[in-house]
Amino acid sequence: MTDSFDILGKLAKEAVVKLYGVEPAEGALQLQATRKEFEGDVTLVVFPLLKVSRKTPEATATEIGEFMKAADSRIESFNVVKGFLNIKMSSSYWGEVFSEIFAAKDWGQHPSNGRTVMVEFSSPNTNKPLHLGHIRNILLGWSVSQLLAAAGNNVVKVNLVNDRGIHICKSMYAWLKRGNGATPESTGIKGDHLVGDYYVEYNKMLTEETGNALRSAGIDPKEATDEQKAEAQRSTECQKATQAMLVKWEQGDPEVRALWAKMNGWVYEGFDKTYADLGVGFDKIYYESQTYLLGKSLVEEGLAKGVFYRRDDGSVWCDLTADGLDEKLLLRSDGTSVYMTQDLGTACKRHEEYNFDEIIYVVGNEQNYHFQVLKLILGKLGMPWADAIYHMSYGMVELPEGKMKSREGTVVDADDLIAKMYDTARETSLELGKLDDMDAAQQDELFMTIGLGALKYFIIKVDPRKTMLFDPKESIDFNGNTGPFIQYTYARIKSILRKAAEQKLAVAFTGAEFIPKEIEIVKLLASFPDKVAEAAEAHSPALVANYAYELAKEFNQYYHDVSVLKADDDKVRSQRLALLAAIAQVLTKAMTILGIRLPEKM
């Protein structure tokens, strides 16, 4: 589509050449959407043109406006406000625009740009179930993947499972000590929840042993300093045993490896169920246990090149003080690796496999430093693609009752939250009624669709960089900037279109003249591809979420004020139905980007 900016940009350039005898300098033609308080669609800022016009802003704007209006019948009128030329396009022009939107099968989808973008999200530890914090990560990762695909990129969705490390050993140790052979089958507890229970149990054990160690040293645990507590922890059986278990794991001890495989298997089954409930998936899953050795080999290369150095205790470090950071540990003195080590190896393996143009890590803002270091170290190792790394940093999710802590067992599990959203959707929908024509299975599916739509939209509509407060009840309101409001709007449009089909009414672009409110909706529909591109550039699905809300809001106001099915003129009615069909199509595309389903009936 040749949009109004392209049309008016060319006309404005022609006007400057004809009126003032010179080509406008690069960047001198500044076009922007007209502000809502003024009449017009596009505004030309004329101040940069005064050097060539040698006239006042008002006179320059008037001359250019008169030239452009005379040159193109698609310009209906113009007005001048100081140095701003506000141009209004004709109804026939917006008719041309709408005919293209209505005919498009996938409006908003950009053609392939040849770029490959990898998006890593979820990246859970296998010592606890997915929780509300993971949900924000997963929903942002999925929606930014869909967004980038809509913008024309080839997107590869990946997950890195942190399936090894000291945190895993903690759950394993607690299960050995206090599990009594418990399994998901014997307890009826979902596997990831069962393992998470033993992670919490480990920290109870550690607290008990630390307290005993402090009391043995004549120190009241309540009055102990942080240094005294840390020293006491190092002396506990818990800490010594888990560290020894980690060393054994890296040495390939068969007994430790067998327990690790068994407990991780329980967790994977649990994760898969949660991912399925959320409607997300991955193109490839990487496991830290399979990539950390690649990182270790890179560390050895870095040592040989002098990029890293080894301390007297055998640990390996990278000195980043010249880069304004500090020194970064890469291998502990006992030879075990850290997160940075495996991230180096995993990044290299991924680039080798996919040759990506960009890799996006969806990780909370507490890891900002980590990704600064990752880029720096890869650059020092001579990886030319190090700058392709983008950390999509997001704020934490908090609840009305405060922050969550995994080790204390105060998190909100993803499964519990999904169940709560279902229950809240059910309660709200039943209060509203209108479900008499649905059987139990249809109602069940609707409650899940509304509940998940509310959850996803409430989280995604917030700028990813911001910390957010999640309130399940507020998210499921059928009014305001919520998922259910947009879902209800879509269902309402589909109901109108079903009635039109029953009455055998045509749904078509007829060329009937648009009223001003319809032009505003067409302008909003026309802006959707640009909104997708803008959101992709900013890595912010929130822009698409809020666009969908604006479109739904515009429809509801329009439908309140304008007759559609009972319009007197057949051509007008057919075109209004076509406008509704286009709104439904764009809402579907926008909400699909967000991973949200739209029900045909509500």
Average predicted local confidence, pLDDT: 93
Taking the sheet with the most strands, its summary is: 5 strands, parallel
| Secondary-structure arrangement, i.e. CATH architecture of the domain at 414-593 | Orthogonal Bundle
Instruction: Write out the strand line-up for the largest beta sheet, numbering strands in chain order.
Output: 7-6-5-11-12
DSSP, total strands? 14
Shape: globular
What is the CATH fold-level name of the domain at 414-593?
Isoleucyl-tRNA Synthetase, Domain 1
What structural class do you assign from the helix and strand content? alpha/beta
Distance between the termini: 35 Å
- Total helical segments: 22
Unreliable stretches covering 5 or more consecutive residues = 403-409
**Oligomeric state as shown:** single chain
Instruction: Kindly estimate the percentage of residues that lie in beta strands according to DSSP.
Output: 5-15%
Task: Write down the CATH class of the domain at 414-593.
Answer: Mainly Alpha
**If you compute it from the alpha carbons, what radius of gyration comes out, rounded to the nearest whole angstrom?**
30 Å
